[in-house]
């Protein structure tokens, strides 16, 4: 089964302040390796244009469009003829694009929500990229979150088929590297106001208590007025190709989760998979479903307070630290590679195609009613 797949997403050319990029790159490359023709369409915006770090797509193509009006004019036939068209979350003018795609695509359509908890929290208040009315029009709702989110999407918002499609780590890029260890603990992530209290508790306060240790926070969009302890190094941006070296230079790396994702649960960050694939042991806050991704205290270390963090940094032996990291890496290789995600997407495509070929209860009842009307001469 070789599919023609079109993806309209936030940005794949720039990972600056954008976790979507690494998720898309890994998935699209895996799909291309499995024989599918993949095209990514991205809106040209200055903040990504100025920080593009995609060197060359691995077997797939990317096209930049300038405006909403240009999209159907230049790529209408591509979308119309594709076997599968995927629209991602946070796409500029996403509702208008979704309306156009679901009205004109002959193949299956899917919404890939890389921000499911944020989406579900904001749908009723209004979002720029998705409306409740659009959800039933997609054949598949691909969700960054598993667990109860899938039932909510189907039962409350009438999606015909909601399925989990977690992010993954490109294990050809994300692998252990030999680097001098510069930091006891590090964090890689874009600033988020609702995530900052966790970062303050689980990295900044431990840094204050362990003045002799060196720590690091890397990521874009942090306010200039934030005050960092002297032993916390700030890096504004780490390009994707430098992520493995960055993880390798940390004894431990920290994962902190946005509030909506903690509340909904079953929403693993791409950084979890990437750090684990690099063989760096992870400290993480707790959220429902974490144990379905990594086994706590065996593959990942769950922390809830500054004391939890300082105890690990001061007392855990290197042998224990390395064992935890190795078990997490094996879990990623076994369950969370881009190849696993590409195969899942193929399976979902087959399932949705079979559903489309079977009349729904509504359409079957409508057809029977129309046939009866014809027989009686009522139409």
Key structural traits:
13 strands, seven-stranded parallel β-sheet, alpha/beta, Rossmann fold, 379 residues, disordered C terminus, 2 domains, six-stranded parallel β-sheet
Description of the structure:
The chain is α/β, with parallel strands linked by helices. It has two domains: 4-167 and 338-361, Glycogen Phosphorylase B (Rossmann fold); 183-335, Glycogen Phosphorylase B (Rossmann fold). The protein has 14 helices and 13 strands. The strands form two sheets. The protein has a seven-stranded parallel beta sheet with strand order 3-2-1-4-5-6-7, sandwiched between helices. The protein has a six-stranded parallel beta sheet with strand order 10-9-8-11-12-13, with helices on both faces. α1 (20-33) crosses α13. The longest helix has 20 residues, at 338-357. Residues 360-379 have low confidence and may be disordered.
Summarize the helices and strands and which ones pair or pack.
Layout: E1 4-9, H1 20-33, E2 37-43, H2 46-49, E3 61-65, H3 70-81, E4 84-88, H4 94-104, E5 108-113, H5 116-122, E6 140-143, H6 148-155, E7 162-164, E8 183-188, H7 196-209, E9 215-218, E10 232-235, H8 243-248, E11 250-255, H9 259-264, H10 270-277, E12 282-284, E13 301-302, H11 306-315, H12 318-335, H13 338-357, H14 361-375
Parallel strand pairs: 1-2, 1-4, 2-3, 4-5, 5-6, 6-7, 8-9, 8-11, 9-10, 11-12, 12-13
